[in-house]
Design a protein that fits this description.
single chain, 79 residues, three-stranded antiparallel sheet, 3 helices, 19% strand
Length: 79
């Protein structure tokens, strides 16, 4: 995982309690250590975000009460 993605994920971890108050069970887009959007499904989050932002520059995170519950890492090749 590159440094930019690590920073975005750490932002989620560090602000988890505040984030879940507003985004519980949503898929949020984090870019540059900021929440830039939220969606009801992963598919919608991926489709819309990949239109707006270069792959590898943002993360999609499902907001759950248990931080470890829905965290998965996917790698894509960036050319």
């Amino acid at each position: 995982m590159n440094e930019e993605l690590k920073k975005n994920y750490n932002y989620y971890i560090q602000n988890h309690d505040i984030i879940i108050e507003k985004y519980l069970n949503k898929f949020i887009i984090i870019k540059d250590e900021k929440i830039i959007d939220s969606y009801d499904t992963f598919e919608e989050a991926f489709e819309e975000s990949s239109k707006k932002y270069e792959l590898g520059t943002f993360i999609i995170q499902k907001c759950t009460e248990n931080i470890e519950e829905d965290t998965r890492i996917f790698h894509s090749r960036v050319y």
